[in-house]
Amino acid sequence: MSRGRPRDVSATTVSLLLLVSVAAVSSSDNVTVFRCCGRGEMLDPTDVHGPCALLPASLPPQDFVPVIFDVNSNQFLNPNEPPPAYWNLVHERPPCRPAATPQDPPRFVSFLNGTLLAQHWPKNLMVDPGLYCLDRAGALLCLPDEPNKTKKCCGPSAEYSEVNGGCENSGRHDAADLPEDITSGFPRCEDDVYILSGRINESHWPVNGAWPAGGQLRTTDGVTLQPREYCLERVLEQTQEPRTWTVFTCAPRHGVDHVTKSYREDIRFTLYPLGLLLSVFFLAVTLVASCMLPSTYHVLHWKCQVNHVGCLLVGDLFLAFVQLSGDSLRGPLCVFT
């Protein structure tokens, strides 16, 4: 399975769009903006939601200064100067389980009135002060409620490229077989990591065999996906006709590769089936030896022993089969076993 991220929007284009939408503020207005960490600290790249970490020696020791755009002059403030005097930077986190936006390349822009533009999110999300915090490693922001609609990942005229790991403009407007209320964007995932989890009518099917108003999908494992949990897109490198829709979902918390690697390297999953198969061998020998004594056939104790040993043999055999099959055992055979 391959992974990807949506491609960033140009900061220059976004700034021009905002000239007509963001009002200037006067220097008399007080603006309170949260900073995620204190002086000499930054968000931990391995866990941005955890405690702050000390600045590494490779970074300059001066205090963090946010990038601020001035609508009046149509330019960014000098990055080496502190924020305006009416900016009140407070060491605090936003009151939610915030989503993370990385800093490099810049994916957010602050304005003089304290509003934050998150370029990384669809439709250039504008976030009010108090609903985000800034840091030299990124920003943590509260996201608005997402409409539960089926999404085309890359928008109306783009497709996903596995080679480039992002959306590419294809010029094709191909959404005829999708729900009428289709929207754009990727699902909201932790660390913005997605996987290509399957294809429509191969591993994922619309519930009831057609696109309902809810846009739910069912998988081969019987799991039902809500529209906010996935998005659909054509893969640019897929040229075979008829082209199918690929389903993008959030990657598992530790990643599919990590889960597979841990399972295959864990020696317990080798020792367990070997021990069970050894038990099956001796149970079979016991069963055969018991059956070679015709004089005991009429004894109740012998009948109980044969039934008991036979049940243990079958049970251990099935357990060994389950252990050896691992995560490849699916569908009706898994339920039966």
Quick summary:
The protein has 337 residues and is an alpha+beta fold. 22% of the residues lie in helices and 23% in strands.
What about the largest sheet? 5 strands, mixed
Number of domains: 3
Gross geometry? elongated
Mind telling me which CATH architecture of the largest domain this is? Answer: Beta Complex
Kindly state the percentage of residues in helix. Answer: 10-25%
Strands of the biggest beta sheet: in what spatial order? 7-2-12-13-8
Mean pLDDT: 76
For the termini, the CA-CA separation is: 28 Å
Helix and strand element order? EHEEEEEEEEEEEEEEEEEEEEEEHHHH
Task: Name the CATH class of the largest domain.
Answer: Mainly Beta
Structural class comes to alpha+beta
The third-level CATH topology of the largest domain is Methuselah ectodomain, domain 2
How many β-strand runs? Answer: 23
Give Rg in angstroms: 29 Å
Number of helices in the DSSP assignment: 5
Strand-residue fraction?
15-25%
As residue ranges, the low-confidence spans are 1-28, 255-263
